[in-house]
Design goal:
The complex is a heterodimer.
Chain A lengths: L1 E6 L2 E6 L4 H7 L23 E4 L6 E2 L10 E3 L3 H14 L17 H9 L23 E3 L9 H8 L7 E3 L6 E3 L11 H5 L5 E3 L4 E2 L6 E6 L8 E7 L2 E6 L15 H5 L14 E4 L2 E4 L2 H19 L4 E5 L5 H14 L4 E4 L1 H4 L1 H10 L4 E2 L4 H4 L2 E5 L3 H4 L1 H14 L2 E6 L11 E4 L5 H13 L3 H4 L4 H8 L4 H8 L3 H13 L2 E6 L1 H4 L4 H17 L3 E6 L6 H11 L5 H10 L4 E5 L3 H4 L3 H9 L3 E6 L4 H4 L3 E4 L8 E4 L5 E4 L12 H11 L8 H13 L28 E6 L1 H4 L11 H6 L4 E4 L1 H7 L7 E4 L4 E4 L2 E2 L7 E5 L27 E7 L1
Parallel strand pairs in A: 1-5, 16-17, 16-24, 18-23, 19-20, 19-22, 20-21, 22-23, 24-25, 25-26, 29-34, 30-33
Antiparallel strand pairs in A: 1-2, 3-4, 3-5, 6-9, 7-8, 11-12, 12-13, 14-15, 14-26, 27-28, 29-35, 30-34, 31-32, 31-35
Helix pairs in contact in A: 8-21, 8-26, 8-27, 10-20, 14-17, 14-18, 14-20, 22-24
Chain B lengths: L1 H16 L22 E3 L14 H5 L5 E7 L5 E9 L8 H5 L5 E3 L14 E3 H6 L6
Antiparallel strand pairs in B: 1-4, 2-3, 3-5
The chains are: A alpha/beta, B alpha+beta.
């Protein structure tokens, strides 16, 4: 539907439902605004956008008034100009003239407007209201009451985009103030900071400050998780000063939103703890070495091991945070140069299970970008707390729910923040996700004709006989009503998105869990629904790494290499920006395996636990110091631009391996051009695209129920920890972590606590076959009965040491989960 | 013809017996005008602290780009210069920095000659701008 309006005499055809401001902006007509933000509902607090409409006695706010057919709008009549000026003068009454010391100086919307209106002084005066200073909801942001112009952008963004409602306006009229009403709900994501048009909220993370005329600002892709957010890094003298998104608000996948990691953890790249010199261990002591010496050392050792034990005795483990270019250089060097078969990346832990599931979904009319969430009628979330792993995805789901009334089903073994907006909360027992998925398929689709045409249905439907609604609800301990709601939602929705957190693939029977979840998607697709499949990845280049490792193929996997090292089959290991000790379960096992090696070479930024065990250390650089590409969780290529020069002597991983290859005179060409060509070849033929003609197929699922044993045992459920394990290597060096200073939380259901006689805050020991840990649990409903939920935040808890070293049969993913712990009061 | 010559000689002889215009520089120095733009110094408050709040306006306005300022913020949110440096060789002594300064932190003194043996000695850091150690050079 279109309407015809005129603005300043110009005839315009506009879409119905848009506001006057939006239409004017689209047609290049300027109307000043302060509180308006394109991603928020119109607020209408500043009154700067008033316009005259013929036939109406009083001017109206352009940002809140929708266009109507035939209206004649004038944006620059004497009356509105006077009103705007006066509104501006009133806003300035309480605003202090502290621009020189204000962080926002030079980039301040209010400064720009005052300049535009030519206001050098104003006639109003008022007594400053006295306010008691209350700490803001996060220690990473400083609040300046007197600079606030009460535009309410921060409050709206916290309510609308983040859904936290941690801050709100308190008191009324002249005494109004932005107040942290629910600081415990704050994620420290800094969305409020980013939308503040003045300097009322400023960053309190990094002491370094830069004015707009001193800094350089460049767009890049965030390298801290798999979402691939676009952001702009401001740098001053080769140090990051802050992260902004003001000029990338219209670019996906994040549209100007960031999480706490993206916005505040940037300063780890310039941390003083960075290691910048190659080091060689001589007689248990680190000795600094030059680059040539380090290269020689690496070459000598690798040749020695190869000569004595053959190329099979060497292994390469790389992080999936590396750029595609780095990974291709590494794989070319190891596979084609040295003929070493064992090369693997950490996407093995993160994504392998999803890699196989994607092939089955190729035939479905599916999408996998985040924008697709907004078009879905139903979003099914399983395995993990999205707010902890990928807050941007969780935010998008909340926006979909708020704007389009999208229904949500959550399937998890503990309560998450997304349960608040969920229509069917299926909080199942740890390890019973498979019965839940199977039960849903059976209850919702068994009778439909569509699924019967899909290959594999006959065998799969035989498996389903055990999964009647009653049996599933009993086994998984889920609410029957909720289950029925979920079934009804699955039946009636025309488009369904499936969001899978890391929790599925990284736990016991991970590959089967993901397949069971994929079966649910296949059933939906077979019934003629539009489906979306979004696996959330923890590593920035998870998909890229998976594509590369799949194409080069063969050899031992990450976990198998550690196993082989323990058994003495692998003699030399090259670990690149990965920390197996902090990442893999059964810490002592991994440590023993690494001790067993003849030669351990580690390339990393910081002194990780693995680096401490190395024989040779080579420093590399962060994602801000190199250029290349990531493949984000949507399977899209995202450009990573170099914003900083590499710190001191550090070099990018790709450069290191091409240097070594050249020194070894290997028959591989690793010039940037060749690498670039190889990368595009690989990514063009990757097996990750969802478009394709392959037919849909159901997976066969194998499932073995874990039974709860005697009293006193609880399921150990680590949450943020094992999805965000790479926190342990780089981001812990960000100064924001110290300020947040959250201790690990151990949550236990009050019923269990009563049964086991555990009091809130008392110290207990938890024991598994592999070890024990002294903890002080908190009583909380967030933990399901029979579970001990661990929220590790950013600190190493030692919880991984309690899990045995086991791998998935199919994907070879070393997993954590389904471990029973015994609680003992100390 | 002879008259102008006599006039000139008269002036010369007059000067010969009057007080000299030149001074014995560097032993003697001339007083400068109150608005003279000499070498910079940092104005201090009653506690002896410099007033700079690291707003960066001096660096922004400087036409010869001789001011380097790294701004920082302490734990209480107070802005201060972590680093401040004027390159006195590059400076053209236009005085724009003084005019731009919103807190009267930087001023220009009366010293107009500044000599030293090394280029580094012409870098005026915060300490030097406060103590004005270059005054006796």
């Amino acid at each position: 539907m279109t309407v015809h309006i005129t603005i300043n005499g110009k005839e315009i055809e506009a879409e119905k439902g848009k506001t006057i401001l939006e239409v004017a902006r689209e047609n290049g007509i300027y109307i000043p605004t302060l509180c308006y933000h394109s991603h928020l509902h119109p607020i209408g607090s500043c009154r700067l956008c008033v316009v005259d409409i013929e036939g109406y006695p009083m001017p109206m706010a352009a940002c809140t008034t929708p266009v109507m057919d035939g209206i004649k709008v004038h944006t620059n009549t004497g009356r509105v100009l006077k009103m705007r000026r006066q509104a501006m003068e009133l806003i300035l009454v309480n605003h202090p003239l502290d621009c020189p010391v204000c962080d926002k100086g030079g980039e301040c919307r209010l400064q720009d407007l005052a300049y535009e209106f030519g206001i050098a002084e104003q006639p109003f005066h008022a007594k400053k209201p006295e306010r008691e200073h209350v700490p803001f909801s996060t220690p990473l942001i400083r609040q300046w009451y007197d600079r606030c112009v009460l535009c309410l952008r921060c409050v709206h963004v916290c309510h609308e985009l983040v859904g936290n409602a941690a801050i709100d306006i308190k008191e009324t009229g002249y005494r109004s103030v932005i107040y942290p009403v629910a600081p415990e709900r704050c994620y420290s994501c800094g969305e409020c900071l980013s939308v503040c048009p003045v300097g009322a909220l400023t960053e309190a993370v990094n002491p370094l400050r830069g004015r707009i005329w001193q800094i350089e600002r460049k767009q890049t892709t965030c390298g801290q998780c798999g979402v691939g957010c676009q952001m702009e890094v401001s740098t001053y003298e080769n140090k990051p000063v802050n992260i902004k998104t003001d000029d990338v608000t219209e670019e996906g996948p994040n549209y100007g939103s960031l999480c706490v990691r993206g916005r505040f953890f940037y300063d780890y790249v310039s941390s003083e703890e960075r290691l910048t010199e190659p080091k060689i261990k001589k007689a248990e002591e680190w000795v600094s070495a030059g680059w040539d010496e380090a290269y020689e050392n690496a070459i000598d050792h690798l040749r020695e091991v190869m000569k004595a034990h053959g190329p099979d005795s060497i292994g390469f483990i790389a992080s999936a945070r590396l750029l595609n270019e780095d990974l291709v250089a590494l794989f070319e060097f190891a596979k084609n140069g040295l003929n070493v078969p064992n090369v693997d990346t950490s996407s093995r832990i993160d994504l392998s299970a999803h890699g196989t599931s994607l092939t089955a979904l190729k035939g479905a009319s599916s999408f996998k970008d985040l924008d697709g969430l907004l078009d879905s009628d139903l979003i099914v979330i399983a395995g993990g707390d999205l707010d902890a792993t990928a807050q941007i995805v969780a935010n998008r789901i909340r926006v979909a729910q708020r704007l389009h009334d999208t229904k949500v089903i959550t399937i998890n073994s503990y309560k998450t923040r997304l349960d608040e907006i969920s229509d069917a909360i299926l909080t199942c027992n740890s390890g019973t996700e498979i019965p839940v998925f199977n039960g849903l398929v059976k209850a919702a689709f068994e009778g439909s004709d569509g699924v019967k045409k899909v290959s594999g249905w006959e065998d799969f439907s035989k498996q389903l006989t055990d999964y009647s609604a009653d049996a599933v609800c009993d086994a998984a301990q889920i609410d029957r009503e909720m289950f029925e709601t979920a079934v009804a939602l699955l039946k009636e929705s025309a488009s369904v998105s499936f969001v899978s957190g890391g929790g599925l693939g990284q736990t016991t029977e991970g590959s089967q869990k993901v397949k069971a979840f994929a079966n649910l998607a296949v059933a939906c697709a077979a019934s003629g629904k539009k489906i979306g499949w979004l696996p959330v990845t923890a590593y920035a280049n998870g998909w890229g790494a998976l594509a590369i490792q799949t194409i080069y193929g063969g050899g031992l996997s990450y976990g198998e290499m550690i196993q082989a090292a323990k058994e003495g089959k692998i003699k030399a290991l090259v670990v690149v920006e990965e920390d197996p000790i902090a990442t893999l379960p059964d810490t002592s096992y991994v440590k023993e395996a690494l001790d067993n090696l003849d030669f351990l070479m580690v390339i990393d930024l910081f002194e990780t636990e693995t680096v401490k065990k190395a024989d040779l250390f080579i420093p590399s650089c962060s994602f801000m110091e190199k250029s290349g590409t990531f493949i984000n969780m949507e399977g899209k290529k995202r450009a990573v631009n170099q914003v900083l020069d590499p710190m001191e002597k550090t070099r990018a991983v790709g450069v290191i391996f091409s240097d070594i290859a050249e020194k070894m005179k290997l028959e591989v060409e690793l010039t940037p051009e060749v690498i670039q060509k190889k990368v595009s070849e690989i990514l063009d033929q990757d097996g990750l695209k969802t478009e394709g003609k392959d037919a849909l197929a159901f997976f066969q699922i194998s499932y073995q129920a874990t039974r709860m044993e005697e009293n006193g045992h609880l399921f150990l459920v680590p949450t943020d920890l094992h999805y965000n394990h790479h926190y342990g290597t780089d981001e812990v060096h960000a100064s924001a972590i110290e300020k947040l200073g959250k201790d690990p939380e151990y949550l236990i259901n009050p019923k269990d606590a009563a049964r086991l006689g555990v009091e809130d805050g008392s110290t207990v020991t938890i024991k598994t076959e592999r070890g024990e840990l002294s903890i002080s649990p908190t009583l909380s409903d967030e933990a399901k009965e029979g579970h001990l939920v661990v929220r590790s935040h950013y600190h190493d808890t030692g919880i991984l040491a309690l899990f045995p070293f086991e791998m998935d049969d199919e994907t070879k993913t070393p997993f954590t989960g389904n471990v029973l712990v015994k609680l003992q009061k100390s | 013809m002879i008259v102008p010559l006599i006039k000139g000689l008269k002036y010369t002889l007059g000067r010969f017996f009057s007080k000299p215009i030149t001074i014995q520089y560097p032993e003697e120095r001339r007083e400068v005008a109150p608005r003279w733009r000499g070498i910079h110094y940092f104005n201090v408050d009653e506690n002896g602290m410099f007033k700079c709040v690291a707003c960066g306006l001096c660096a922004a306005v400087c036409p010869s780009k001789c001011i380097k300022i790294t701004a920082g913020e302490d734990e209480d949110g107070v802005r201060y210069p972590m680093e401040y440096e004027i390159n006195a060789i590059r400076c053209i002594y236009c005085g724009f920095c003084v005019e731009a300064c919103p807190v009267d932190a930087i001023r220009m003194g009366s010293k107009y000659d500044f000599t030293d043996y090394h280029r580094e000695d012409f870098l005026l850091t915060i300490d030097r701008l406060v103590t004005q150690d270059y005054l006796d050079k």
